[in-house]
Amino acid sequence: MSEDTKQPDSEEPTVPGVPDTGTSGTPPASVIPPAGTLAGADAEKSAMVEQAKSRVAAVKESLQDQPAAAGAPKPPVKKKEEGPKPTDASGHPLVTKLKSQFGDAVGEALEFIGQLSVTVDRARIVEICDFLKRDAETPFDYLSDLTCVHYPANREAPFEIVYNLYSIPANERVRLKVRTSDTIGVESVTSVWPAANWPEREVFDLFGVQFTNHPDLRRLLLPPDWKGHPLRKDFPLEFVENAWTKEHLPVMTDVEMEQLHQRRAYGLEILSVPQERLMRSIFIGGKEVMPKDK
Amino acid sequence: MTPKEIATQYEAKVFDTPEAAKAAGFVLTETAAPRNVWNKASAASAIVLKLVEKRFGGEVEDIGLVIEPFRVTGCYKPKSSEVPAA
User: Do A236 and B49 touch (CB under 8 A)?
Assistant: First the structure.
C-alpha cells in the first residue's frame, strides 16, 4: 500500500527501538499534549471563537424577530451632518500683509477647508496682483486660473471675477475675488501674468465682462457674431443656439432636401451639393484666424 | 438647480398647469419647451430673471413659473390697479 492510500485508522507496523518521527508530517500521538494541558493562547483563542459564535446567534435571533415588528414605526433617519463652513481669515499672515499694504482695498477674507479667499477692490486689482507676484516670502508666480461667477440678485455688481493664484516656491495658494458689472468691467492682469490673456477672453466670451487694457479682447470659444453670453444665468441655452444655427444654415428647397437624403442614404459624396459646400465654407473657411496665422 | 429650485430661489410661485396660473389671476408670458433637463433649467432661469426684473421695477405684483413635464412658462400677477374690472 502506498503512502497516499493509507487509511487514517489503519495500523502501521512499528519497528522497535526506532523513534516514530512520522513521515507524513503530522506529529505522533505521543507528542500531542492532552486536552487539559493546552497552552494559554489556545484557550484564549477557543474562548474568542465561542464568543463570536454567540454573537452570530444573537444577530440571527434578532433578524428572525424583525417581521413581527414590521408595523412598528421606523426610527427617524439620521440627519446628514452639516459640512464645513467658511471661517474668518482676517488674521491670516497673508491677509495682514495685504491689509498693511493696501488698507481698505482688501475686504472680506474667508478660509474654507484650508483655502484662503480674499475679496479686493476692483480699482486696485492690478496693484495687488503685482504685489503678490513680487512678494519675497510667497511669490505668487503662477496664475492657476481666472474665472467668473454670475450673481444676478446682486444688481450693482452681479459678476465676481475669481483669480486662483499659486506660489510655486512657497507651495501656497490664494483666491482673489473682485466684484464688478459687465459695463464697468475690470482691468486686465495680462501685464502681471501674460497667461491671463486667454482666460480673460474666455470670461469676456461667456459672461460679457469687459477687461480694460487687454491686448486682444475678442471671443475665444464662440463665433464672432454670436449674440449673448451663455454662462450668464439669464441666457436660455438651447434657443439662442438653435436661432444661430438656423440663421447660418443655407436655405434648401424640398426637392434639394430629398436629393440630399437620398445621396446620404446611398453613401454618396455629400459635399457635391452646392449648399453643403456653402456650409463648409461657413464653418471651416469662416472660422476665426489667429493674428500669427494670417 | 431644477426649475422648481430656481423658482424658490427667486421667490416665484410654482404652478403645475397654465390653467391653474390663470385661475390664480396670473398672466402667462413666454413658454419654452427644451429637449433636455439642463436646457429646461436654463430656460426656467432665463424666464424667471426677466420676471424678477419686472418685479424689481414695480411693474408686476407677483411672479410665477408654470412647470410642466416638457415645458416651462413664465407668468406674472399684474398690479391690482391694472386688473380690468370684470
Answer: no
pLDDT of residue A34: 54
Q: Which residues in chain B are closer than 8 Å to A237, comparing Cβ atoms?
A: 34, 38-39, 42-43
Supply the pLDDT for residue A5: 41
Q: pLDDT digit string (tens) for B39-49?
A: 889 999 999 99
Report the amino acid identity of residue A269: E
Q: Do B35 and A235 touch (CB under 8 A)?
A: no
Among A153, A233, A238, beta carbon nearest to B39? A238
Question: B69: which 3 cell numbers?
Answer: 413635464
Which residues of chain A have a CB within 8 Å of the CB of B34? 237-239
Q: Are A171 and A143 in contact (CB under 8 A)?
A: no
Burial of A150 (0-12, 13-18, 19+ CB in 10 A): buried
- CA dihedral of residues B44, B50, B53, B55 (deg, nearest 10): -70
CA angle B72, A225, B48 (to 5 degrees): 20
Instruction: Let me know: does B73 contact B65? Beta carbons within 8 Å.
Output: yes
Q: 3-state class of A81 per DSSP?
A: coil
Total residue length of chain B: 86
Average pLDDT over residues A163-168: 96
Q: Residue A279 is placed in which grid cell?
A: 456650409
Residues of chain B with pLDDT under 70: 81-86
How high is the pLDDT of residue B46?
92
Nearest Cα of chain B lies from the Cα of A150 at a distance, in angstroms, of 12
- DSSP lists the bridge partners of residue A147 as A162
Q: What is the pLDDT of residues A147-161, one digit of tens each?
A: 999 999 898 999 999
CB A89, CB A109: distance < 8 Å: yes
Residues 57-86 of B with CB under 8 A from A: none
Measure CA A218 to chain center.
Answer: 29
Nearest CB neighbour to B35, from listed A153, A235, A238: A238
Instruction: Sheet containing A106-112: give its strands across.
Output: A87-88, A106-112, A115-120, A172-180, A159-167, A142-150
- Cell (9 digits) for A68: 413581527
Chain-chain contact of B49 with A155 (C-beta, under 8 angstroms): no
Interface A:B, Cβ pairs < 8 A? 33
